[in-house]
Amino acid sequence: MFQGSIVAIVTPMLEDESVDFDSLESLVKFHIQEGTDAIVSVGTTGESATLSMEEHSTVIQKTIEFANNEIPIIAGTGANSTTEAIELTRNAKQAGALACLLVTPYYNKPPQEGLYQHFKKIAETVDIPQIIYNVPGRTSVDMTAETTARLAHVDNIIGTKEARGTVERIKELVALCPDNFKIFTGDDGTAMDSILAGAHGNISVTANVAPGLMHQMCKAALANDKITAKALNDQLSDLNKLLFIESSPIPVKWALQQMGLIKSGIRLPLVALNQNCHSDVTNGLKAAGISL
Q1: What single-letter DSSP state applies at residue 19?
Q2: What CATH class is the domain 4-234?
Q3: Helical H runs in the chain?
Q4: What is the per-residue burial (b if ≥16 Cβ within 10 Å, else e) of 117-153?
Q5: With contact defined as beta carbons under 8 Å apart, do 214 and 8 qualify?
Q6: pLDDT one digit per residue (tens) for the chain, 292 residues
Q7: Residues belonging to the active site
């Protein structure tokens, strides 16, 4: 069901930090037009950590409405409380999401068995396809390939987003997990190499601003067209780095603002991109052929 370029879409906000649903609708249409393969709503890039439970569910619901069945919607429903993650996942299922993305619990730093039991409990409680998500740079816990492989045999768990940022981890997952288990990278910088190593796609920050280019790169890599994939990836290379020059989604929201796609709102404790970084991000956008 899911492969290729999957955008971890931003949550547009007005200057008062309220959600800008008009811009969200425009962004969803933008991704449909540009060929993005699926959308993750309210993931890390969507500022899930600072949306209220009600906002979280409403943004997912509205994204599904705006998509109008023209692009698959995956709902970000992870939390460091298993009970809260179950509630968010139930809400997403009721709203019509095709799958959910659940991050490893952050801050409380569970052991591997705790991670296994957390995801198993959610999968057994809510009957919807679920993609588990490892991002140790954000959560301070690294779910091992072995734990992921255990979870790959749990009903409703259909895949993983691996954002450790190494192709070696992707290769471990490919070797250990069943063939029908979907493996996505969550690291734009190694996305091409990860797909060539057996991943099924990229859940991407960069696709927010370069959706067509990211889609084509992923498509070429999935077809094992290494020459085309590398040429496209070279265009994205600078942008992949510069969109993390400060904590994401700070740079990507600033870039989208310069493109005229969203307003300037971002929610505290995040703030607008430091002025010293503006020219670097602008140059990265231009290198990717993006008009400002």
Answers
A1: B
A2: alpha beta
A3: 21-34, 53-67, 82-95, 112-125, 136-139, 145-151, 167-176, 191-196, 211-222, 226-242, 250-258, 278-287
A4: ebbbebbeebebbbbbbbbeebbebbbebebbbbbbe
A5: no
A6: 799 999 999 999 999 999 999 999 999 999 999 999 999 999 999 999 999 999 999 999 999 999 999 999 999 999 999 999 999 999 999 999 999 999 999 999 999 999 999 999 999 999 999 999 999 999 999 999 999 999 999 999 999 999 999 999 999 999 999 999 999 999 999 999 999 999 999 999 999 999 999 999 999 999 999 999 999 999 999 999 999 999 999 999 999 999 999 999 999 999 999 999 999 999 999 999 998 8
A7: 133, 161
Alpha-carbon Rg for the chain, nearest whole angstrom, is: 18
pTM for this one? 0.97
**Helices 82-95 & 53-67 angle (0-180, nearest 10):** 30
CB 58 within 8 A of CB 18: no
The tokens for 285 are: 């956008």
Domain boundaries, the chain: 4-234
245 touches 239 (CB < 8 A): no
Q: Which of 90, 88, 47, 37 is nearest to 67 (CA)?
A: 37
The answer to whether the CB of 209 falls within 8 A of the CB of 259 is yes
Amino acid at 283: N
Structure tokens at 210: 């370069």
